[in-house]
Amino acid sequence: MRDKIFSNNTDLVDFIFDKKVADVFDDMVNRSVPGYQTMLEMIGLIVKIYAKDNSNFYDLGASTGATSLALGLHNTHQNNKIIAVDNAIEMARKCKKNLTSKLSNFEVVCSDINDIKFENASIVVLNLTMQFIDLKKRQSLVDNIFKGLIDGGVLVISEKIHFDDDKKQKQISKLHLNFKRANGYSELEISQKRQLIENVLVTDSKETHLNRLKIAGFSESICHFQCLNFASFLAVK
Predict the structure, then answer these.
(1) Domain encompassing residue 45
(2) What is the pLDDT along the chain (237 residues), one digit of tens a residue?
């Protein structure tokens, strides 16, 4: 379904992942996030290399299940379970509906990801999720994920990032706006969504992400993909 949520003037409140958003989320993210499909393709490649038999995969902030599908459909290992977690009930319902006909080895959990106990994990993915987590809780979340990963397991984080250099930030932001325009969003839609989401989506710099992974104890951490102001990080335990 095409995203037309902000095509008309609306009373501005904070952005929430309700049924209206769940119904159009796939269209919204593809038209708003440059490189989104490549992020998913990279997850498919990563699961082939780093997943282990008899282990769990966690999709944190699973939304409609695209990451879980990438994990499941590209997995070549044995006896794995995909645990898809989202704290929005409508997203969890849509995720379960999308996965049911395509995967068998999954569980959808409607919960705050900070309350999840990570166990026997070889793959954990935060795909456009960390940016919605309270800044004060981000390090502890990564620490908990690290503890729940088996040796050689990986954490994948894909996020909108910001640049500390004002000139770079303005240049990249301008390109991102033009990306949205090129995908059919009007000035009204862009403006309204920005106003609604700015209080709930708080970005980190690339350096902050890498430092957080280092503090948690990951032996290797790299930015393996970037398109404009969106980047993906791969951290190996």
Answers:
(1) 36-162+200-236
(2) 785 655 565 555 556 778 888 888 999 999 999 999 999 999 999 999 999 999 999 999 999 999 999 999 999 999 999 999 999 999 999 999 999 989 999 999 999 999 999 999 999 999 999 999 999 999 999 999 999 999 999 999 999 999 999 999 999 999 999 999 999 998 888 887 887 787 789 999 999 999 999 999 999 999 999 999 999 999 999
Helix (H) or strand (E) holding 236: strand 230-236
Residue 96 lies in a domain: yes
Q: Which residues pair with 159 in a beta bridge?
A: 231
| CB burial string 59-78: b at 16+ within 10 A, e below | bbbbbbbbbbbbbbebbebe
| Rounded Cα–Cα distance for residues 61 and 196 (Å) | 19
Q: For residue 59, is it within any domain?
A: yes
User: Is 135 within a domain?
Assistant: yes
**CA-CA distance, 233 to 149, in Å (whole number)?**
16
Number of separate domains in the chain: 1
